[in-house]
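dumping these here so i dont lose them again. two proteins, back to back, each one seq then structure tokens. dont judge the mess
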Amino acid sequence: MTSLLFEPRSGASVGHAGRPAPAPFHPCPVDPACRHCRAPASTPDPWSFVERAYCISLADRPDRAARAAAELHRVGLCRRVLFYRPERHPFRVIEGIWESHRAVARHAQEAGARNALILEDDVTFARWVGPRTLAKVAATMRELPPDWTIFFLGHWPLRARFVSPRLLRTASACAHAYVASPRLLAWLAANPFSKDERERERIAGGGIDASYARLPEAYAFFPMLATQAALGSDHMAEKKRTKPIKKLKHLVTRTDLGELLLARMMRPNELVIAAGAAGAALGSWLRRRLLPSQTEARR
């Protein structure tokens, strides 16, 4: 694949080592070898069910931005996605992440979008993602109720139940691949980061995904389209990395092991949760079928 280096733009500021800093918002770099980049403008777009699409990647991580761009070229999102390249937050990582998602939500709102696909730069799409799969995703989105808030394309489900064979009602962590509704875009735009004044699922940590895990009317496509790559965490403050490991849990909370486990176990976890949800649905169906028969038998 050709190099995906970003060309300097007019008015770009100077970044690390004197290199031009990327503009906060910029299109996915064109790859001459990408069939989607070369396709005529009239080519049908299988991602047309999203009105805006973004990928968040820190300005000082061109390596991760290039890796994410390769994923976007592979699945045909390259012509739709805008990269958002914020500076690293100087002292609170989770606040920087929150404000990055908030910035793209505001951008989508200002563009008049009714929904927005928001990705993080560690997103990894399944090999089978293509036009036929995306047509199923589009059809599943049409099943969502009017008051839906978030539609996960990748997540760590904590609890879930099946609404239909490809649609889960869920409480989920992770924010690497999701479609935000107008309600969520408005909520994000109106709510700056607050350490205390917000609901969150504590088992999911203190970041934005812990708040997403408490959202009402949250849904997910099954099976998920995107997991996270085991790249090592940009989410962990450096001071946490340097703290001593005194307990077993510190291997997860103070090293990159947590990110590795999250990446490797995301799909197995989805299957376990889905199996439980399918069992509950089957049990409910059997009760509806059998209980009337038992009532009639007693008569």
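---- next one ----
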Amino acid sequence: MKASAAATSTDAAMTAIRTLAPDAAGLGLRRALMGAVRDADPGDFDFLECAPDNWIGVGGRLGEALSDLSSRYLLTCHGLSLSLGGVEPFDETHLQRLRRFLDTHRVPIFSEHLSYCADDGQLYDLMPIPFTEEAVHHVAGRIRQVQDALGRRIAIENVSAYAAPYQAMAEIDFVNAVLSEADCDLLLDINNVYVNSINFGFDAHDYLRRIPGGRIACMHIAGHYDEGDDLKIDTHGSAVNPAVWELLAEAVRLHGPRPTLLERDFNFPPFAELLAEVSTIRRILGRDSRVTMRHAHA
């Protein structure tokens, strides 16, 4: 009984300590950025995000560097390989190791893509799910399995796509149905909303208006590649497009500030340029949060 009570007390303390402020601005942790991130001045960013799939079991110099960073900054985690939309059973060993990793680093938010990425082996890509009632029930059930295994709510991310296997409903209706049935949170990827709005011809602003704001745990923003007027590719390899910044500001106006993270995976510019984009996130969250507060008191 004493051990159980102590564990409960520890869990509660960890939850209280590892809480992200709604106006927190973060940066995706990539190994190519490790040196610059560790040398950054306090206040350059508020939190970091890593893909636990790339870090579970890593020791030595890199493992020590991650532990150092997670002791200095809040660390969120964004999964790559659970394949929530897949049909193969989850790897229970991986889920156990993932839970230990999240607990060890006191991770406040774990998210995973609303897609599938495995079919008799890893596909090494995020494949779109059919937007059907059957798929809603299937994915929601698998999300509940993951939440039970990890002992926490998770957030699902709206993903970018370039072809649709079958759409019996709009993307926003599918996302909302999964959120409701699974009773999970949302990682709102602003760039993905923009990319898909161009690729599939829907109204990005209407999409944002229809999101249940209470389920937004955090947001992502990133750059994309302009393949053409009607095709955008989500690359995370360039600066954020002005239209995507505008959508972020719109999301904040509609739903209030949420912890927002800059993703950059390659074509890394000087670190100061990444920090300038983090500062832009801060300005949008701070400016629009004050607007929201003025409206609330009007």
